[in-house]
Amino acid sequence: MWGFGGRYYWGMKERRGGRSEGIVVVFAWMSSQERHLKNYVQLYSSLGWNSLVCHSEFLNMFFPEKAANLAHNLLKELLRELKVRPCPVVFASFSGGPKSCMYKVLQMILGMSEVQIKADDLQLVKECFSGHIYDSCPVDFTSDLGARFVVHPTVLKMSHPPRIVSMMANGIASGLDALFLNRFESHRAEYWQTLYSSICMRAPYLILYSENDDLAPYQVIRNFAQRLQELGSDVKLVKFDGSPHVGHYQHYPIDYKAAVTELLGKAAAVYSQRVHRDGERMDLKGTRDEISEPYSTLRKAASSSNQGFLGTPLMQSDRFLMPSSPGYYEGRGFGSVSDEHKEDLIHLPNPPRINAHGVLGQFLFDVCVPKNVEDWDIESSTSFIRQAYSSSRRHNPFNPIKCIRRSRL
Fold first, then answer.
1. Strands 314-316 and 321-323: what pairing?
2. Helix axes 181-197, 218-230, angle to 10 degrees
3. How far apart are CA 361 and CA 367, in angstroms?
4. Among 134, 135, 137, 126, residue whose Cα is nearest residue 270
5. CA-CA distance, 278 to 178, in Å (whole number)?
6. In Å, how far are 183, 298, 315, 341 from 320, measured between CA atoms?
7. Taxonomically, which superkingdom (predicted)?
8. pLDDT digits (tens, 9 = 90+) for 336-351
9. Range with the lowest mean pLDDT among 45-59, 172-186, 212-226?
10. Using one digit for the tens of pLDDT, what is the confidence trace for 276-316?
11. Cα-flanking dihedrals φ and ψ of residue 181, to 5°?
12. Going from the N-terminus, what domains does the chain have, and what CATH number goes with each?
């Protein structure tokens, strides 16, 4: 009871590795034993959910680093199961369980504290997280909380503890409250900030309380639920009449089971929608990749073709790409479409080259290039083109004979 850290175990060991709807991580109240959680574990199991139960020690409230160590080990154990088969996860907290461990787990999942766990693993837990259950909590941890917790019957497990025991427990708790008074307020603010930050995981809340609970005042719980609703969360607040602290299931088993069944159903639906949405997003991304890949290939081909096709440079015109050498067409057969599909790669022979300074090159130059171009009427040709263009604008009949101009070429 007065130690540090805590322990955890799987509630239904025979179900581990089997098929279950999901996992309920139970953050039990301080000083609780395995037998005290047996009814809750059986309830979750009857609904098809496995249970990972965590018992934390009392001093974790005053030493957050001890709570963080327990949270880290618990999170690794949960990850081992989720890596085998991802499934919805619900956190069920009782009494002081959120302060002694649960809020540290939330900080790690949300990235609010440093932890030696891979980011992908934390993202897996975040994607699987699908619901919250608060039973007789959250409790506002004021400076005198330690004293009130220790002497409470649910902690000492005695309806009327001996006076000497109450005095000793009260004295130790009061001393701890006074010793950590300066740090207590900062821890309290961090605790509430973490609980409210959990709304970013978009999971439903079930909050169970009683107006007769002297350890978890209903005003605090109602304010917490109202604030969550204002922030846009799905919150169901269930009030039980006359039930004591963490005694709601014992006094109202039918109503309690109905509320838990509804929450677990919502959690399963949230997880299923999340998986479906992520699957559609992945399919859409794959479709975009498949569509963009051919266009990317065409862009690369066009870019490489501008640089040259098998050593033959290409010139880009206003309308299309055309080869600068007639050798592009040499050796290529214009067969059927099926024949072209059979050719993954077309190897063209090297086009014949003519040496400009050779005999044949000099002969072609002398034949094709006139030696005197002084009598070329370039200006008249230009004016003729203008006249032909303007006449076409006036819808005159086209006379191809007028367009024939002889030249020495």
1. antiparallel
2. 40
3. 10
4. 126
5. 50
6. 76, 15, 9, 23
7. Eukaryota
8. 444 444 444 444 445 5
9. 172-186
10. 887 766 555 555 555 455 545 545 544 554 444 344 443 44
11. -60, -40
12. 6-282 (3.40.50.1820), 355-409 (no CATH)
Q: Take residue 339 and report the two structure tokens written for it.
A: 């024949």
How many Cβ atoms sit within 10 Å of the Cβ of residue 115?
Answer: 20
State the helix-helix crossing angle for 38-46 and 253-307, rounded to 10 degrees. 60
Q: Which of 220, 224, 91, 100 is nearest to 155 (CA)?
A: 100
319 pLDDT higher than 90: no
Token duo for residue 89: 């996860």
Q: What is the pTM of this model?
A: 0.65
What single-letter DSSP state applies at residue 312?
Answer: B
| Both tokens assigned to 51 | 């249970």
Please name which of 155, 217, 216, 227 lies closest in space to residue 192, comparing C-alpha atoms.
Answer: 227
Please state, in angstroms and as integers, the Cα–Cα distance from residue 119 to each residue in 115, 129, 268, following that order: 9, 15, 24
Tokens for 345, please give them: 């790669």
Residue 129 makes CB contacts below 8 A (sequence gap 6+) with: 88, 89, 90, 91, 109, 201, 203
The per-residue pLDDT for range 74-109, each reduced to its tens digit, is 999 999 999 999 999 999 999 989 999 999 999 999
Nearest residue to 263 (alpha-carbon basis) of 226, 285, 290, 234: 234
User: How far, in whole angstroms, is CA 248 from its chain's centroid?
Assistant: 36
The length of the chain, given as a count of residues: 409
pLDDT above 50 for 225: yes
Q: What residues have CB less than 8 Å from 176, skipping those under 6 apart?
A: 59, 62, 146
Per the listing, tokens 């059979």 go with 342
Alpha carbons 154 and 250: distance in angstroms, whole number: 13
Asked if residues 206 and 44 have their Cβ atoms less than 8 Å apart, the reply is: no
Tokens 């900080």 correspond to what residue? 107
How many beta carbons lie within 10 A of that of residue 121, not counting itself? 16
Pairing of strands 6-10, 49-56: antiparallel
The residue type found at 46 is S
Q: Which amino acid would we find at residue 178?
A: A
Helix, strand, coil % (nearest 5) of the chain? 55, 15, 35
pLDDT of 4 higher than 60: yes
Q: Where are the alpha helices (DSSP H) in 215-252?
A: 218-230, 248-251
Residue 9 C-beta-side C-alpha neighbours within 13 Å: 12
Q: Would you place residue 138 in the very low, low, confident or very high pLDDT band (cuts 50, 70, 90)?
A: very high
